[in-house]
Write a structure and sequence with these properties.
Blueprint (H helix, E strand, L loop, with lengths): L1 H16 L3 H12 L4 H8 L5 H40 L18 H15 L3 E2 L5 E2 L1 H4 L18 E3 L13 E3 L5 H9 L4 E10 L10 E11 L4 H16 L6 E8 L2 E10 L1 E2 L5 E2 L5 E10 L1 H6 L8 E8 H9 L12 H7 L22
Parallel strand pairs: 1-5
Antiparallel strand pairs: 2-4, 3-4, 5-6, 6-12, 7-8, 8-11, 9-10, 11-12
Helix pairs in contact: 1-4, 2-4, 5-10
The structure holds phenylalanine.
């Protein structure tokens, strides 16, 4: 029993002297582990005469629980010490600005707009901006659509009464532009060829269903120079579509069409395909109309003050919202303009993903979802 006392003192002083948790655990194993000092002594009890067995057994049990308690107490001290060390060494500066974990999202229309500008910018196009409220000269007349022209009925126009002191006059009324094509004229008025611009912006028509909203977005394109041909138009738009859908090849076709301001006119369709986001555009062997285009009509060049015998050009108008629906698989156009933050969180993009031709357009999973 005396031996037990000195053993106890020896063990307890080791425990109290331990300076880290690892050392403390080593002590525990060496004393209480399977082959530990106390464990071995307990194993040896069986060989002793009964009385000694009882006395020593009791002593060992007491020793064991004292050691356990001492280890537990020391463990708490050492854990506190470790935590304090961590707190003093791993400081954080709470005055630093917060991480750029943004809540806001970029609307798909803005994203597509940036992508379109990046692609045409790379091809050498400038971006032109013009008014939403337009006069009929720029929106219609100069585009080879005089007042009696039947094509005016092709677009359900919102007219504005520009002088509230007088009765509404259909001939002089302003319109909210039905397309961005007026920018062709505004550009020619300001600039001599060579011209290479895109003009993105809001457009308005009286229309409302899953694929039409009264306000929608277009990008007008205009190229004017000497010796511009339909082949330039086709090459330019084909390259655009490949870059936009981030594909090496893309089935396209041009269908003859009619616009008063282009001759000949065409509509461009793209074939069923898979985009980078694994979204299927179209179904089966379907073709989808994506834009209207053509060679600028001589009357339009004249209206813009450009000599059609010297210069030719091509123009196109594509729907941004339509492209967003296709590229990012958004089924209903009306939801674009409902300002539902849950929708935006799902379909929107993080502001840190910038679209560029070198850095990637949609940045492969740039989708915030
Ligand atoms: N302005 C036409 C539309 O809105 C599209 C277009 C633009 C067609 C330029 C030809 C050339 O439907």
């Amino acid at each position: 029993m005396e031996n037990l006392d000195s053993l106890k003192n020896e063990i307890l002083s080791k425990i109290n002297a331990s300076t880290d948790l690892k050392v403390l655990d080593d002590i525990r194993v060496s004393v209480l582990g399977k082959k530990g000092q106390i464990t071995e002594m307990m194993k040896g009890l069986g060989a002793l005469p009964l009385e000694e067995k009882i006395a020593l057994g009791k002593g060992l049990n007491i020793l064991k629980s004292e050691v356990e308690n001492a280890i537990e107490a020391q463990k708490i001290i050492l854990e506190d010490k470790a935590l304090n060390e961590k707190l003093t060494t791993e400081t954080i500066d709470v005055t630093l600005p917060i991480r750029p974990e943004t809540q806001g999202r970029i609307h798909p229309v803005s994203k597509i707009y940036e992508e379109v500008v990046a692609i045409f910018g790379e091809m050498g196009f400038d971006v032109a901006n013009g008014p939403d409220i337009e006069d009929q000269f720029h929106n219609f007349n100069a585009l080879n659509m005089p007042g009696n022209h039947p094509a005016r009925q092709m677009q359900d126009t919102f007219y504005l009464n520009n002088d509230p002191t007088k009765p509404f006059d259909m001939d002089t009324a302003y319109v909210i532009r039905t397309h961005t094509s007026g920018m062709q004229i505004r550009t020619m008025e300001k600039q001599q060829p060579p011209i290479r611009i895109i003009a993105p912006g809001r457009t308005y028509r009286s229309d409302y269903d899953a694929t039409h909203t009264p306000m929608f977005h277009q990008v007008e394109g205009l190229v004017i120079d000497k010796n511009i041909t339909m082949a330039h138009l086709k090459g330019c738009l084909y390259d655009f579509m490949k870059a936009f859908f981030e594909l090496d090849e893309i089935p396209v076709r041009y269908r003859p069409s009619y616009f008063p301001f282009t001759e000949p006119s065409a509509e461009m369709d793209i074939g069923c395909l898979k985009t980078k986001t694994e979204l299927k555009i179209g179904a089966g062997t379907d073709w989808l109309e994506v834009l209207g285009c053509g060679m600028v009509h001589p009357n339009v060049l004249k209206a813009g003050g450009i000599n059609p015998d010297e210069y030719q050009g091509f123009a196109f108008g594509l729907g941004i919202d339509r492209l967003a629906m296709l590229k990012y698989g958004i089924p209903d156009l009306r939801t674009f303009f409902e300002s539902d933050v849950r929708w935006l969180k799902h379909y929107g993009f993080t502001p840190l993903d910038l679209s560029s031709m070198t850095g990637g357009l949609s940045n492969n999973g740039g989708l915030a979802r």
